[in-house]
Amino acid sequence: MKTVFHFMRDCYFYTTNIKKAEFRNHLEDILRKWRDKVLKEKRGKQKASKKKSNQKNSRKLRIIFIVIMTVLIGTGILWLVSEKDSKAVRVKYLEFYHSFENGEIRTVTIRSDKVEFKKHDDETLYYTDNPEYEGFKEKLLLAGVDVKNENSAQDVLLFVLDLLYYVIFFGMIAYLIYKLVSTINQSFKVIRHTKTSFDDIAGMEQLKKEMKNTVEIFKNPEKYEQLGIRPTKGIILEGPPGNGKTLFAKALANEAGVNFIATKGADFQSVFMSLGSKKLKMLFSRARKHKPCIVFIDEFDGIGERRNYDGTGVDKENNRIITTMLNEMDGFSGNEGILVIAATNSYHSLDEALIRPGRFDLKYKIPNPDLETRMELIRLYTKSKKLDSDIRIEALANAFEGKSCSAIETILNEAAVTAIANNIERINMECLLEACKKTGIKVKL
Questions:
Q1: 53-65: per-residue pLDDT in tens?
Q2: Considering the entire predicted model, what is its pTM?
């Protein structure tokens, strides 16, 4: 409130004391300073919050370390003191046996590694090896000897160390699982606005038109339900890598004005069994919370390959993931308001039950760009990069035949870098040849 008050006060001051022609410049300065101040305060709060969180975690680690060291040191001191205070006289077991047969033994303390005893009319403490045979204690009791069982300091130390080991071991496992779940929650990030539109994509006009119709039905299911039309559940985009399948899905979400979650097949692969299917359920759960939502899964063949029943652990995990995907796509969890777009380079390797109509209703092939699209791509990628007058866009597009969109963009970008490095104002043929050589992309120029 104080900042807003200062802002209004400054506006009033300038409107009453300066010329109207200068008001706009001064107002822009005030707004800029106010915005910078707000952003600075916001960054300061975020930095302080992060620092506080790090200090809290560091304090927890220090406490755990101090507790562990205290237990170890205390147990060690107990063991040293017990060993130091012990003044027992060691005798051979045969001597102990003869003393027992003669009725000279008064008390016996059985420990894990030795037997301590005292004789009648003798306060000296003796010890010998523990025979560790069954019936030893019973034999002493039947002879009228006072028998006790005690653990030595070494036994206590071993017990504490074992307990400490299990606490650390299972604590680490619990911590790793906690971090893993936290990572999963953060990996499925919901994007409100992708800032990508169909104008950023060259070509594919027919596909854009069909997709707009699909999105219209997706956004207004009640309207089309009266006409007997249900929304599309899934779309598969097939084609070689680097042709904008991910970019197309982002643009579609932005054009539709819905939420967008991007992931890939590798995100569902894990060393822990059944974790992949758990991640998939979490993905759809998050999508349902933010519906209407478009879920984009890149490298779909990484989780949707044909099921194999050989019985290996990898095959079983893959089968679980596909079964979970089938359940989610069938709507058992009520996934209305969710459109799944899957991108793959190998459509024929996918499981037939997964890609059947009713789950993935539509399939579009996104091949390498044709001549018109390549020309449009060159114009798009050279908006801020000037081409030499000797280079014709049509001839350059013909030279890029069979190349993906990303390959064309990479060559043009590297050519611009080469031109700047050589102090050349415009990209010429030498720059393009050098760019092809650096990137390893073969083009007949």
A1: 667 767 777 777 7
A2: 0.59
